[in-house]
Amino acid sequence: MTNRRNVLLIVVDQWRADFIPHLGAEFLRTPNLDRLCREGVTFRNHVTTTVPCGPARASLLTGLYLMNHRAVQNTVPLDARHTNLAKQLRRIGYDPALIGYTTTTPDPRETGPRDPRFTYLGDVMDGFRSVGAFEPTMDGYFGWLAQKGYELPEKRENIWLPEGEDSEPGVTTRPSRIPAELSDTAYFTERALTYLKGVGQKPWFLHLGYYRPHPPFIASAPYHAMYRAEDMPAPVRAADWAQEAAQHPLLDFYLRGISQGSFFHGAGGAATELDEAAIRQMRATYAGMMTEIDDNLGQVFDYLDQTGQWEETTIIFTSDHGEQLGDHYLLGKIGYFDESFRIPLVVKEAGTPRRPGAIEDAFTESVDVMPTILEHLGGQIPHACDGRSLLPLLGGPAPAGWRDLLHYEYDFRDVFYSRPESALGLSMDESSLCVVQDGRYKYVHFAALPPLFFDLRADPHQFRNLAEDPAHASLVKDYAQKALSWRLTHAERTLTHFRATPQGLEERHPAPPAEALRDAAE
């Protein structure tokens, strides 16, 4: 490591884990991401601990599981008592800058009901300095377009309609109406370069967010035509959507209700109506938006090279969540399938890399990013943090006591754009699930719906539910107990390490997992 420690945290939106060339996606061109993978460590088994955007980013930036931060859906407030990465960085002298968004709804107890932040999806998490706003309602980006001289249509979102007056919304081979030099990806990149050129010689932290490859699934030229539909991987799904829907009531609800309109601006029709050719074309567009991000990251990386900052900067590349992309007939980030939860994580540490090009198979989670950054920069990891620093894995194998399961949660209570709670006859607090899985089995526990259990070796894409199979009853019990133990051992613990004693307040520091295991063995 060098004396000057900068951190560039790149958070893209809706980039699923199997679209990483270093992990086998040879159809995708991302030379700058490839460079990060060559110089850093790529984590093969990495998940977001929750979806969608707001809850996922809350977990990423607080280091807390959903069951502890309780910002359970987009639009649900984040409790002001929780610290976050930005607040902790300020304690050690950093002024954390943010480009993009965090989709955070403020604590109403800290403001009032007339606060305009309660009229839209989310705002910037407390503690960050916004240097490239996107929220609220993308005003920063649309204002930038107008300042550049671009004439905005009356309905601003129409910039993401296909080019041409005769075009029809939906899956298309046509480019977006907005040119690449004025895309939202270009906007974020310009904001990043502006910040970096102005920060001077101070050590810096920059959260660089990109909106893509989030829908609408339409790309600016030339990225719209960069990939051929026939070269894209085929969707993973049953012969018809009704077979999929029979697996579980929640899946049935989503398959009956997801429309194309949220993914293709102005489109109609159900997501289940997309045939294989349409899905492959959608994936080609999705890949094009990824390459657009990569090309723009190249501009940022070039600047770090030119100014001698590449060696001084730890770079972390990740996403908030994944994307179903037609698998199981679904679009978006919902439910319990891996496509929504498995996301990329690549870490290139400052200085001389210790494991350049390594692919790490240990189970890692989005809550690990915050403690990793804090430990790297010399900050204190809060007692309440549910994640663990990844620094040991950047230099060698996982330490003793590392987690042997992946964990994630999903709260599907009613919000203004989806009503599963009402449709399934559940109360608000019954509308949730949690997942524990390892390399062999996956267990999905619902608060008030039937569970699911999959043998991932025999059924990697999770078509056959074994939860009611008598031959698997013992395993179902075992994994249900693992889920319960996980929740018990990660109950909120901000103050549980403190004690009142005759000598006054005492703070007890828990032994690291490896030491705890050794003590138990003795």
Automatic annotation (TrEMBL):
Domain of life: Bacteria
The protein's name in its UniProt record: Alkaline phosphatase family protein
Sequence segments annotated as region (Disordered): 499-522
A Pfam family recorded for this sequence: Sulfatase
InterPro entries per the UniProt record, alphabetical: Alkaline_phosphatase_core_sf, HdlasePehA, Sulfatase_N
Bias (Basic and acidic residues): 505-522
Coiled coil: none
Alphabetized NCBIfam families for the sequence: HdlasePehA (NF045661)
Residues of the Sulfatase N-terminal domain: 5-378
PANTHER family in the record: IDURONATE 2-SULFATASE
Keywords: Hydrolase, Metal-binding
